[in-house]
Structure to design on (385 residues):
């Protein structure tokens, strides 16, 4: 595939990276520059892409510009003991229409994911999540999508797609490849009761900000079962990330959003990761850019700690626990390698019975032992049967 339409990273940012210490990320990442062109992708694990498309970022005019400041802070960070090979492909310029930008992003994502390269997308409006999701049409697989956001961004199917109405298109439009949707960090007063009830009826997973704040570990099995992760930087409180015209007083702290990013990176299933709604003109002292750089660092850190436990290679690497509950039995599996847990959901199709494994927590196992069916097991069972 030709990446000729990609714009290189700005000269001033490339020049800045050349002055950094040899151990810094700026010296370790292969950067698309005017001088060197598109980096070689053979053996690459992660590719960073900016998308200069913010025309449908509702109430956030200016989103999709000046990603160079994020790169400046990312390049000056130091990697851990990482094996991953990383490239920065530069930016997808704003297309003549929004659909042109979507198409360009889809084509790049399809190529990268087919070649086992994870795109890290920096946006632009969060409506780009729709383009990210649609890329999986060509990959011919069902998709689990997780958004980290104060709102569900449902909108209605009749509305033009935007950063506040893309989810209805993901759920309703054909071809429908969506198996599960999860929201992490919604704030109840920003979402109507009808929307909350609808997602519940569809057996989707939603977690309030307070739930995550009280126990960050509950996001790990959610992200372990996710293909596409989309983070609205507005999910972070305004005091920590001011570069968003829709930023609000409550939200995640910087260290919490970095932990969520690390959980996304460590998930064997996550194959694309995006951070959206960055508006450089509102960024006081580059604080949000610095935070986004650290979020990307934590995602890459997580990737380097992947244990390749998905899908199961052999059940001999797991300890099985059988829990009788009500009129059924739930089989739990604990990894001997990572101590992570899965539970088995049985479902029938055309007179055949199959088992599907979904991630869970140790607490789910304990609840089942106390005769409480885990909510994620129940929702998955209803969707499959």
């Amino acid at each position: 595939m030709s990446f000729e339409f990609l714009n290189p990273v700005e000269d001033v940012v490339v020049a800045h990276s050349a002055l950094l210490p040899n151990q810094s990320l700026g010296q370790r990442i292969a950067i698309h520059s005017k001088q060197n062109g598109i980096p070689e992708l053979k053996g690459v694990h992660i590719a960073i892409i900016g998308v200069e498309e913010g025309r449908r970022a509702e109430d956030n005019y200016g989103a999709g510009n000046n990603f160079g400041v994020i790169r400046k802070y990312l390049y000056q960070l130091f990697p851990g003991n990482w094996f991953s090979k990383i490239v920065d492909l530069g930016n997808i310029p704003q297309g003549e229409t929004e659909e042109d930008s979507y198409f360009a992003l889809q084509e790049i994502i399809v190529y990268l994911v087919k070649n086992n390269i994870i795109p890290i997308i920096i946006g632009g409006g969060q409506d780009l999540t729709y383009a990210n999701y649609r890329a999986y049409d060509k990959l011919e697989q069902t998709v689990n999508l997780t958004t980290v956001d104060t709102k569900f961004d449902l909108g209605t199917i009749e509305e033009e797609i935007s950063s506040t109405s893309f989810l209805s298109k993901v759920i309703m439009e054909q071809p429908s490849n969506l198996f599960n949707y999860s929201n992490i960090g919604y704030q109840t007063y920003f979402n109507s009761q009808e929307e909350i009830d609808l997602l519940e009826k569809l057996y989707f997973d939603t977690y309030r900000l307070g739930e995550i704040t009280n126990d960050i570990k509950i996001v790990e099995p959610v992200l372990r079962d996710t293909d596409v992760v989309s983070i609205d930087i507005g999910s972070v409180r305004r005091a920590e990330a001011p570069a968003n015209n829709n930023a609000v007083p409550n939200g995640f702290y910087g260290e919490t959003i970095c932990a969520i990013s690390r959980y996304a990176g460590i998930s064997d299933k996550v194959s694309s990761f995006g951070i959206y709604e960055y508006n450089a003109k509102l960024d006081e002292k580059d604080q949000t850019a610095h935070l986004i750089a650290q979020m990307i660092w934590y995602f890459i850190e997580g990737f380097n700690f992947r244990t390749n436990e998905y899908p199961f290679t052999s059940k001999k690497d797991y300890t099985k626990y059988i829990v009788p509950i009500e009129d059924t039995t739930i089989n739990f599996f604990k990894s001997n390698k990572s101590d992570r847990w899965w539970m088995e959901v049985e479902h029938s199709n055309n007179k055949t019975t199959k088992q599907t494994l979904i991630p869970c927590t140790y607490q789910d196992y304990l609840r089942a032992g106390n005769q409480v069916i885990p909510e994620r097991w129940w929702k998955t069972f209803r969707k499959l049967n």
